[in-house]
Design brief:
Number of strands: 13
CATH topology of the largest domain: Pyrimidine Nucleoside Phosphorylase, Chain A, domain 2
Order of helices and strands: HHHHEHEHHEHHEHEEHHHHHEEHEEEHEE
Structural class: alpha/beta
Bound molecules: uracil
Helix content: 40-55%
Shape: globular
Strand order of the largest sheet: 3-2-1-4-5-13
Number of domains: 3
Number of helices: 17
CATH architecture of the largest domain: 3-Layer(aba) Sandwich
């Protein structure tokens, strides 16, 4: 086979065979196919697309390029969750203990934050002593004993994706549906869960800006994931404004804990209930959506989910006392409130820009090597659709210095769009794709 022939075929709108795709991915991973040819292929795929058979073949070839985690020694159904990325997304912190308290094991590998998006692992490191580094054996033991574990990645999963994603990033070919589907799914398939629930974000703070694109991505992810033999469900949700009431690290953990204690009942809990419902139903522990939702609500109301969370923090070396006393978590000393200049209604909150405010305060990384400040961040008191009075608090920034707080408050103010007419908020959950 010759790469130039495959390039010509895809350039002219042809369909690559499974054998051709596997040959290409193997060659690229080994360094036998150079970046310049693979760049041209990514661009050809970007313009010509791939059908489902090609997308499936690409996913499986990338999956087979590296290690896989064998979860077969974990008893019962194993579930995993993935979000296509967002600002203020602390869902895993609630969903894992809620689902585990209902009897379904969650085995999750997570990443660190980069740019405007945060990472679950960084947030969890707000617990003094917490570690995400564990061997595969320890990971499996903890899932069996506690019901869930969240670890950083140690095994070499999908090296083809690592190489290809870096190439797409610098060749303007990230936003290609078959390339996104194969990239997300190969990593999820490598972890080996039976049930995979995907939170596909839609809006200004997401990859997919329109509902049409988000649903197309959701459909393709579910189709290819099911062909690969897993129970995959996707939920399309709003990312036009940050998720929930906080953006940062420890501050997001505080919100997650308060929500698990039942103190808030906003879109964050709504999202956890929808995602958890899919997991419990697909796992077979609940016969239908209504029963699943009731089980999850009971896990929160009874305190079982919070207890699970404390057991998880302890198992990974963190201080479980901080679960019950969040004041033990870091919080930056300087606070500055952001006030509404005039009365009106919140029309929009630029999610990506709020993520950047937190990043510039030190809560995120501009480049992979940066270290982060776990105590800084942003609290948002007003969300889209809500009325505000002149002089009312829209949010607060938490910073290390007066100057940083001053600058961040100015930037946060600019993230808000306030209008005089009433604003009707679009539904947060746009739909479920099975
Ligand atoms: N997330 C991934 O892992 N890959 C993509 O291509 C897009 C989002």
């Amino acid at each position: 086979m010759r790469m130039t022939d495959l390039l010509q075929k895809k350039r002219d709108g042809g369909v690559l065979t499974g054998e051709e795709i596997r040959w290409m991915i193997e060659g690229y991973t080994k360094g036998e196919i150079p970046d310049y040819q693979m760049s041209a292929m990514c661009m050809a795929i970007y313009f010509r697309g791939m059908d489902r058979d090609e997308t499936y073949a690409l996913t499986m070839a990338m999956l087979d390029s590296g290690d896989k985690i064998d979860l077969s020694s974990i008893s019962g159904v194993k579930a995993d969750k993935h979000s296509t990325g967002g600002v203020g997304d602390k869902t895993s912190l609630l969903l894992c203990p809620m689902v585990a308290a209902c009897g379904v094991k969650m085995a999750k590998l997570s990443g660190r934050g980069l740019g405007h998006t945060g990472g679950t692992i960084d947030k969890l490191e707000s617990f003094p002593g917490f570690s995400v580094e564990m061997s595969e054996e320890a990971f499996i033991r903890q899932v069996n004993e506690v019901g869930f574990a969240i670890a950083g990645q140690t095994a070499e999963l999908c090296p083809a994706d690592k190489k290809l994603y870096a190439l797409r990033d610098v060749t303007a070919t990230v936003a290609s549906l078959p390339l996104i589907v194969s990239s997300i799914l190969c990593k999820k398939l490598a972890v080996g869960a039976d049930v995979i629930v995907l939170d596909v974000k839609c809006g200004s703070g997401a990859f997919m800006h329109t509902e049409e694109d988000a649903f197309a991505l959701a459909r393709a992810l579910v189709d290819v994931g099911r062909w690969a033999g897993r129970k995959v469900v996707a939920v399309v949700t709003d990312m036009d404004e940050p998720l929930g009431a906080t953006v940062g690290n420890a501050i997001e953990v505080r919100e997650a804990l308060a929500t698990l204690r039942g103190e808030y009942r906003g879109e964050l809990m709504e999202l956890c209930l929808v995602l958890g419902t899919q997991i419990l139903r697909e796992s077979g522990v609940a016969p239908d959506d209504e029963t699943a939702k009731k089980m999850l609500e009971h896990a929160v109301e009874s305190g079982a989910a919070l207890e699970k969370f404390a057991a998880f923090v302890k198992a990974q070396g963190g201080d479980p006392a901080a679960v019950y006393d969040p004041d033990k978590l870091p919080l930056a000393p300087v606070r500055k409130d952001v006030l509404a200049e005039a009365a009106g209604y919140v029309k929009g909150i630029q999610a990506e820009d709020v993520g950047l405010v937190s990043m510039r305060l030190g809560g995120g990384r501009a480049s992979k090597e940066d270290t982060i400040d776990l105590g800084v961040g942003v609290a948002l008191y007003k969300k889209v659709g809500q009325p505000v009075a002149a002089g009312e608090k829209l949010g607060t920034v938490f910073a290390e210095t007066e100057a940083a707080a001053e600058e961040a408050a100015k930037q946060l103010r600019a993230c808000y769009e306030i209008v005089s007419e009433k604003v009707v908020r679009a539904p947060f959950v746009k739909g479920v794709v099975k």
